């Protein structure tokens, strides 16, 4: 029972942890919402504002462009933080760009910002507080209206409307564009045609990074550990069934002597373990679910960030119902080989065993 519970709990926990890490990667990269970016090259010979407007028109005219927003990043200082933070200003609605909110809401005015979770923890601020930010040309006060699950600039990042840059820097127009595509548009083909259209302009189109090497390695490690732990659990079941079969060998001999087929003997052995595996699998669901939420919360706390619902709430009722059969699967795999031995044991050998 304990071996099956361990294996089934491992499956529930590992499935949830893998899903949480995948959701965290999606939230960090935002590649699902913004598959393509265009970066402007700052050149002394080209009027930045005019070139930016020209590039915007080119992007807007491309078939497949669903949404477009310009952005500029600048370094800022804020009280309580020894290093610089990154302020990103968007020149239009950017609520669709894939930022996952831990709490609060998206900004709605020039003096409202959404701050990275790690930044807020570093400076001891929360949603609803005001914050003074300083740039190369001055300072301004903004109100924190949202907390984002964001690892940009090591999580020391702020997002707001591009008007927030006024008074902080001389250049308050976009130097890059974030692009969403129609569902039927192939990103690779879109990038090739856009790159051709941008020839002669100080701009380059690039796909947004959609994977994190560290997360990929962690997912591989989780998968490996899951397989190993399930294998250990199955071996525990295997040992239990071997001992159980040895104790009941005379009973199997009697059953075979009265005409019980090998298939029926095999079914008796397997079903006896499945009867244990079913309650173990059902019990593993709340245990694995609780373990998952505890470990993910601990990981987030160590990383100094909050957790959005999309990263934590990864189990659906149907998903949990399916995972409850994990105990049955582990029991079945562990009992299969010993059941075969019992099924093909000679009657005389079995009857003499006692």
TrEMBL record:
Membrane topology: Multi-pass membrane protein
Location of the MacB-like periplasmic core domain: 1-187
Record keyword Transmembrane helix present: yes
GO biological process: lipoprotein localization to outer membrane
GO cellular component, one term: plasma membrane protein complex
Keywords attached to this entry: Cell membrane, Membrane, Transmembrane, Transmembrane helix
Keyword Glycosyltransferase part of the UniProt annotation: no
Record Pfam families: FtsX, MacB_PCD
Domain of life: Bacteria
Residues passing through the membrane, by range: 215-246, 267-289, 320-343
UniProt subcellular location: Cell membrane
Domain ABC3 transporter permease C-terminal residue range list: 225-340
PANTHER family recorded: LIPOPROTEIN-RELEASING SYSTEM TRANSMEMBRANE PROTEIN LOLE
UniProt family annotation: Belongs to the ABC-4 integral membrane protein family. LolC/E subfamily.
UniProt name for this protein: ABC3 transporter permease protein domain-containing protein
Species name: Acrocarpospora macrocephala
Lineage, broadest ranks: Bacteria, Bacillati, Actinomycetota, Actinomycetes, Streptosporangiales
